[in-house]
Specification:
576 residues; mainly beta; 8% helix; elongated
Length: 576
């Protein structure tokens, strides 16, 4: 029958026929053609699928087919094939037609040509069961459905959770592809309990799609929108830092223009994450609404602890930087205190070229980190290529950097540089001003003894090897000075705060209160407190510390060990 032309069978074969054909029109017995087709390394081509080395036996009666032992190669993979026809009017329309079932081992590169770069993160071969359903009239109605099922054993997915999968594990997956004129029109993908995907495609790629994660209906779209891929759902956990690293690595490798056009121009996100891992902390119940198009990313966050907007252009520049505009950022836990006697781990410099970091504008209306409370934080950063530096250093430069508290103002700058030889180093410069040092130190989370005082000509400079994120007291160097005028030391109770107290040295008068309470009584007014400090090898040395009041004069020498938070000082107090 001519319908066989749609199957495009070619090559050597043996054909055995048993035919009953009416020779007299008065004969009531219907025509009957029974045959056995035995291919010998033949070839079967149908709707884009190409089976080679076809062997076995195909039995047919008129237009009904049946075969259980066909063997072939598909994409150079051994394949078992079963062929049958379902042409009865009682057969459901969706299943009516010719069925070809097969079992094989495959890899994603067999189906995606030219292979996109992303396949490097999807290695391995996995078992595949497929059922191909051709229409009952394949010449006049050239439609086809391909049902796929696999447990994906052998396939690795080298993306962070929730997509991550080791090649040794299984993940039941079902897919359905609807074809017309040998082109995929629609694809559905299901992984029970994890995701449900629906896509409309043409010969260029995905034209509309939706992927929903989890079993909750949060953000789920009811229809596919043209030129848009919509991601939605509820995720139990999501590590933002891991995904940024994964996507940045892939983006750096993606120079394939054809791959860039495979996805729709707009990517939209409507999701909620129960535990978002970012910025070294865990953020609970974070709703995320975002969109990506030719203008870049626009993401909205609105959770109790973090709220604001992130705007990421395709290519950030100082004139159009990555913008992170947060109305609040409230870290969920107290900053950890360094453990005493912690061994110093071998230093491994950051491999990142600071000039590869994006131009950035960060603003935070309200910041809370443990006991630290700040507001109106603002910083701008830009990369600098090595060619623009007299020393040939690439850099990421932060200037200006500012923050405020109710009684505190901070101004400064920072830099992350990498030498021509590839050695990274960072620096931070800060200047402080305050009309009430006691209140300012409280905003910084320090336990202190100051009730009042004006901060004058106070600044701090630090430098350390590595990137900005690799600051370590043991490797940092620096110096600073602090001058407090017209201050008052309060009567002190012991507390737990330490690090900022050690830096400011206001912990020292607080300690003295324990020894000279009979002199200080309920408080001590002083005219000025002058201190100069240097930091080397984790020790903050007081090269000068002098307090002058109408009651006494105090001089201190020694150091604070910033690694174990211990004090090592000699103090001399003389009556005024």
């Amino acid at each position: 029958p001519k319908d066989l032309d749609a199957l495009n069978l070619s090559g050597a074969a043996q054909l055995e026929l048993n035919m009953g054909i009416r020779l007299d029109i008065r004969d009531q017995v219907p025509d009957r053609v029974e045959g056995w087709y035995r291919p010998q390394n033949a070839r079967l081509q149908t709707f884009g699928l190409d089976f080679s080395k076809l062997n076995g036996e195909l039995h047919f009666v008129n237009l009904d087919f049946d075969s259980q032992n066909l063997r072939a190669e598909l994409k150079q993979n051994p394949t078992q094939i079963r062929v049958s026809s379902h042409l009865s009017p009682s057969t459901a329309s969706i299943d009516r037609g010719y069925h070809i079932e097969m079992d094989t081992q495959t890899q994603l590169g067999d189906w995606l040509q030219p292979a996109p770069n992303i396949l490097a993160k999807l290695p391995g071969r996995f078992p595949l069961h497929a059922r191909l359903v051709l229409s009952d009239d394949p010449l006049n109605n050239p439609t086809m459905r391909l049902d796929l099922a696999s447990d994906l054993s052998g396939l690795g997915i080298d993306f962070p959770a929730p997509l991550y999968k080791a090649a040794t594990t299984t993940r039941p997956t079902e897919a359905r592809l609807d074809f017309k004129n040998a082109q995929i029109e629609h694809l559905s993908l299901t992984q029970p309990g994890l995701l449900d995907g629906q896509f409309k495609l043409d010969d260029q790629g995905i034209k509309a799609g939706a992927v929903h994660f989890g079993q909750d209906n949060y953000g789920k779209t009811q229809e596919l929108k043209a030129d848009e891929l919509h991601l939605s759902g509820m995720l139990e956990s999501f590590n933002l830092d891991e995904w940024i690293n994964a996507l940045s690595t892939h983006a750096g490798q993606n120079n394939n223009e054809q791959e860039k056009t495979f996805l729709p121009p707009t990517l939209r996100i409507s999701s909620k994450i129960r535990q978002l891992h970012a910025l070294g902390s865990v953020w609970d119940n974070v709703p995320i609404e975002g969109a990506h198009n030719a203008q870049g990313w626009n993401i909205e966050l609105d959770a109790p602890r973090v709220s604001g907007q992130i705007i990421l252009p395709p290519q950030p520049t100082p004139e159009a930087p990555l913008e992170v505009k947060l109305s609040r950022l409230i870290f969920p836990e107290t900053p950890p205190s360094p453990a005493q006697n912690t061994p110093v781990l071998p230093f491994e410099p950051s491999p990142i070229d600071p000039a590869s970091l994006p131009a950035l504008h960060l603003s935070i209306g309200e910041l809370s980190y443990g006991d630290i409370k700040l507001r109106e934080i603002d910083l701008r950063a830009k990369p600098q290529a090595a060619i623009a530096s007299p020393k040939g250093e690439s850099a990421w430069l932060i200037n200006p950097l500012s923050a405020k508290g109710t009684s505190l103002a901070v101004q400064g700058n920072a830099a992350w540089r990498r030498t021509f030889e590839g050695h990274p180093h960072s620096a931070l410069e800060l200047a402080f001003s305050s009309d009430n040092v006691g209140a300012a130190l409280t905003e910084l989370g320090a336990k202190h003894a100051l009730r009042s005082g004006t901060l004058d000509d106070t600044h701090l400079g630090l430098s350390w090897p590595g990137g900005l994120q690799q600051f370590d007291w043991a490797r940092a160097h620096g110096q600073g000075q602090m001058h407090i005028l017209d201050g008052e030391i309060d009567k002190v109770e012991l507390g737990a705060g330490r690090v900022l107290g050690l830096i400011s040295l206001t912990e020292l008068p607080r300690r003295l209160m324990l020894d000279f309470g009979d002199v200080f009584g309920k408080g001590l007014h002083f005219d000025r407190l002058d201190s100069e400090m240097t930091l080397n090898d984790g020790k903050l040395h007081a090269t000068r510390f002098e307090l002058a009041s109408s009651a006494l004069k105090l001089k201190v020498s020694g150091y604070s060990d910033m690694r174990d938070q211990s004090l090592h000082y000699q103090m001399v107090a003389t009556p005024s």
